[in-house]
Amino acid sequence: MSKEAISSSNAPAAIGTYSQAIRAGDLVFLSGQIPLDPITMNVVDGDFEARARQVFENLTAVAEAAGGSLQNIVKLTIFLTDLDNFATVNSVMELYFEQPYPARAAVGVASLPKGVDVEADAILAL
Question: Could you report the per-residue pLDDT of 62-89, keeping only the tens digit for each?
């Protein structure tokens, strides 16, 4: 099976040895997105909700570059440095997703790149 790199200028450029996403057949594997502004490559200003929204905006851009949308996500993993933010993630997800919601895991972690407090990756089915 071949694989194809997917990228979008509307999402932050990769800051390491990875692709924004890889398509293999009808599946697209979206790399973790953190709350970076794709233009400045800086963490967005504001509270946790603003940062969570930016994560989903970045995922949206990559999903669209792959020919899909967030509605095509079948598996979502969210990484949080503070699980007390879990309820806010749920509220933000309601703005971006419709039922049936994707399968999801929320994982508490000690730290994330650039010192952020939220990251998400996903698997999209086209």
Answer: 999 999 999 999 999 999 999 999 999 9
